[in-house]
Amino acid sequence: DPARRGATGRRRGGDPVTDPAATPVATAPRPRTARYPSTALALIGSVIGCLGIVAFIILVVVRPDAMSPRTVDWVAAAQESGDPALLAPELPEGWSANYAELVTDGDTRVWRVGFVSPAGGFVGMSEALAGSDAWVAAQVGDAGQGGRVGIDGLRWTTVDRRGERDPGNRAYTMVTRLDPPDTRAIALYGTGSDEEFRVVANAVAAAVRASR
Q1: Cβ atoms of residues 123 and 190 within 8 Å
Q2: How far apart are CA 78 and CA 86, in angstroms?
Q3: 31 burial class (0-12, 13-18, 19+ CB within 10 angstroms)?
Q4: Residue 91: count of CB within 10 angstroms of its CB
Q5: Do residues 159 and 173 make contact, with C-beta atoms less than 8 angstroms apart?
Q6: Which of 141, 189, 190, 207 could covalently link to 170 via disulfide, CB atoms 3.0 to 4.6 Å apart?
């Protein structure tokens, strides 16, 4: 009986025939797909993560004292040098200095202090302990003799470059040589206002009288 022979029989002509209902159909497994958040959410998450890292660096690594402006005690530095010729002008409250150093400029020993006013104006002082004509001329530069002004007994040669495009930190310069037998010469220079230069010049004049 063909029904009892199972799913396989023979067609006329001898070819076997397969019953589709009795033969399992092989299906290929579907590949698994990983689920990711949407592109917008992933971008937002990355930005938040980066901001968190930056905040950590600012709060933990960068300390406020590292960003504070450098200040030095120029009066103490002058006293510690042991040289009474080094000027230590006494400036009004609120003034500070960002450097004070004794250096060699060619053959000349120079005491340099950088003063900063309460308003942020800069007035540097260079005191050549044996100021030669060449050193004084170098402070004036190629601007010639410039103007002249007397402040508290000292006669200054002034050079005003504040109208130039890029005068640097010598936008205004004042140079004086002390009367013999004193061999010192003093230069004031910087970007401060006329009033700030006058404050330092007055203090320098007082310090010169005290050092003699």
Answers
A1: yes
A2: 6
A3: exposed
A4: 22
A5: yes
A6: 189
DSSP per residue, 4-18: GG-SEEE-TTS-EEE
- CB contact burial 118-152 (16+ within 10 A = b; e otherwise): eeebbbbbbbbeebeeebbeebbeeeeebeebebe
pTM over 0.90: no
The C-alpha angle with vertex 197 and arms to 193 and 200, in degrees rounded to 5, equals 140
- Buried-exposed string 155-171: b where 16+ CB fall within 10 A, e elsewhere: ebbbbebeeeeeeeebb
User: Tens of pLDDT along 12-67?
Assistant: 455 554 454 555 555 555 555 555 455 766 667 666 766 666 555 555 444 444 44
Q: Which amino acid makes up residue 178?
A: L
- What is residue 164's predicted lDDT score, i.e. its pLDDT? 84
The pLDDT of residue 146: 73
Measured CA to CA, the distance from residue 135 to residue 14 in angstroms comes to 123
